[in-house]
Amino acid sequence: MHHSFLAATNRPVLLPRFVLLAALAAGLLGVPPGCSKDDDEPVMAVPNPEMISVPQAATHPEGIQYDEANKRFIVSSRTKGVLSTVRDDSTFAQLADDPRLISTIGVNLDAGRNRVLVAVSDNGANTTRTTAATLRKRAALAIFNSTSGALLNYVDLGGLRPALNHFANDIAVDKDGNAYVTDSSAPIIYKVDLQGVASVFLENAQFDAGTAFGLNGIVYHPDGYLLVAKANSGTLFKVPIANPGSFTTVAAATGLSLTGADGLLLTDPQTLLLVSGSQRTVYRLSSTDAWATVRSTGTFATGAVSPTTITKRGSDAYVLYPYTATSPRFKIVKAVF
């Protein structure tokens, strides 16, 4: 029998406020009255919200990762050069900083090793930290404890090729803890091992983009290779870890253009989400031949914003809307295909 809070006369019964709150909490959260909840957990929390609007002015985040253990997002900042956290209620807090972090770009949460890795660059967006010596030259990997934010290592990458311009962009981590970092201004993928030793993993003229943005998003595939996106052409590359020089181009289905390719997210071995900032679209890509070819199986339009990258949260994916360097806020939005 369905019990209503309405009396037979259809006039509302004025129950004590605490009774109503208990009933609402029990009904909405599926928690029987009397079951204890953590005091700091919002009673009316919405699981995996559709959108989180973060009122932090001029943050201009580029990278994002969801930290499942701590129920928070980790975001970077082109304009401030810090790492920060965002919770579902828009609570924003600084996680890590260092004077050498001019602009923080791509972020990778290596949860199993309790560390967060961030690519560091300088294209002039952080006006308080940019210098003539670092502008278009800074490329580094900073590694922090993902719980405390303590700096674990700072690894110079640009010094491996000092004559070139640099923009360290995105990061993938393989099963052994090696990090791979793309450079959007030089035709290079770097490798940084667990000891912090940096090397040029792969350098090839096919990655050159001239003055445009080149290599961008990168992910590690559990079958032992990297998938790497080149922004200006929309090309996807498959790079075997064991033999990077044998890399191949992933053939896109007829009519599929991935220009503006930025962040990548591998949701399962056959499915890749690709964010195209210039197309204002997130593509869901599928491959049934170990990424020799790829086709689109769905899109998510982001509207009048250029999204940057995307992160997995349970079975959902959230895309980052940075807006501009002077915007009063940024948003984290669930991508629905």
UniProtKB/TrEMBL annotation:
Q: What is this protein called?
A: SMP-30/gluconolactonase/LRE family protein
Source organism of this protein record: Hymenobacter glaciei
Q: Which Gene3D superfamilies match?
A: TolB, C-terminal domain
